[in-house]
Amino acid sequence: MGDHMDTSPILKERDQADSPHDRREYPHIVSLGSTRKRRIARHDLSIYRRPIICGNRNAVWRASWYLVNVFVFQGSVVGLAPGWLKATILRAFGAKVGRGFVCKPRVTIKYPWFLEIGDNVWLGEMSWIDNHCRVRLGDSVCVSQGVYLFTGNHDWNDPAFRFFCSEINVGNGAWLGAYTRVGPGSTIPSGTVLAAGEPWQPTRE
């Protein structure tokens, strides 16, 4: 091992010609794929400092939500509770949730007070909203099973591996296919279909 190590970038790009979909037939399909290597700066995790999350709740709130999340949302049995009940619980913890909410079992939500959900939104089984800051899901958004939305990441050019986070916005009528990944700072346009298993994240130089 040398002083540097290789890592695959979160962002993966694919030319339109390489897309498995015909863009003329499916104009809203987003498909990102080919892998490039990126070198990261040598970092020292002994100097890493836990970030201060602006607007976060205190330890009692976080601990209370952790227990509710584990038993009500992540549970495979209690997780079968109806969507209206889960919406009520989320609102009690500071989330904004519209009408017609559908939430399958084994869903993980980091912090509901950073979550805004429109009308008729579906959260599929084993979806994970890892939100250290605001995530907005517009009306009629379908988040399929195993989807991972993460607002936080680390600066690979910083020796201290600095943590940062940036909001995610998903437009009305978007469909996040199974096991897709949506990274910090992403804006998914209304009506977009994100192909199953594909990542979406803004370009970072």
Automatic annotation (TrEMBL):
The keyword Nucleotide-binding does not apply. One of its GO terms (cellular component) is cytosol. Keywords: Transferase. Transmembrane segments: none annotated. Residues 1-23 are annotated as: Disordered. Belongs to the transferase hexapeptide repeat family. PANTHER family: ACETYLTRANSFERASE C18B11.09C-RELATED, SIALIC ACID SYNTHASE-RELATED. This is Acyl transferase (Modular protein).
